Amino acid sequence: MNFWEYLGSRHQQLLADAGQHASAVFQCMVVATLLGVLIGVVTYRTEWAGNLATTATSTILTIPSLAMIGLLVPIVGLGVPPTVIALTLYGLLPVVRNSIVGLRGVDPALVDAATGIGMSRLSRLVRVELPLAWPPILTGIRVSTQMLMGIAAIAAYASGPGLGNEIFRGIASLGSKNALNQVLAGTLGIIVLALLFDAAYVLIGRLTIPRGIRA
User: Which residues cross the membrane (predicted)?
Assistant: First the structure.
């Protein structure tokens, strides 16, 4: 059976795995984005706090993904929980770092002008600082998503959802007639999903970032 025949015979399972993979990455990125931006907002005003936040999230990223999931399994069990926790933690660094950089890069004169017209600190943050910091934050989200697409495949080690199951099945059956097809189908599926997500982020950027700021 060649690769195209394999895709034709397994397309329903592959689509289901792809949907689970995309859903896991998307949901974890939503949580990582909310946490990352919140950490950035809390720490960007103080040099040591920003450095601590960046260092802490960088340290998490140095832990091998297989080891991270292996450490989580005895605590939260198999399946979705270790996948969600690991992906969320791995997705933090680019969002935290870019949130801090973006917020620190806002022109102080604009913040002073907002203060001068009577805006509260929260209003300045929501209406002035975060919108101006959005381009680098979005870049951080894009980077995190690309990383998580690959890392999510390791979740199959802990019976997690996604295309990693296809890859692991192929590796486990090396030498069989469909082993290479399984690995190739899972790998190409992840690449396609990564490209689709990145295209969506480009569209979001065009819709949410004014032309002058993009320039």
Answer: 24-44, 65-93, 183-204
Whole-angstrom distance, CA of residue 188 vs CA of residue 85? 25
Alpha helices in 62-129 (DSSP H): 65-76, 80-90, 92-104, 108-116, 121-124
Q: What are phi and psi of 175, to 5 degrees?
A: 105, -20
Q: How far apart are CA 19 and CA 55, in angstroms?
A: 33
pLDDT at residue 175 greater than cutoff 80:
no
pTM of the model as a whole: 0.89
103-112: pLDDT as tens digits: 999 888 888 8
As to burial, measured by CB atoms within 10 angstroms (0-12 exposed, 13-18 middle, 19+ buried), residue 20 is buried
Q: Which residues contact 97 (CB under 8 A, 6 or more apart)?
A: 54, 57, 140
Q: How far apart (Å, rounded) are the C-alpha atoms in residues 6 and 169?
A: 14
Q: 161 vs 7, 122, 156, CA distance in Å? A: 19, 39, 6
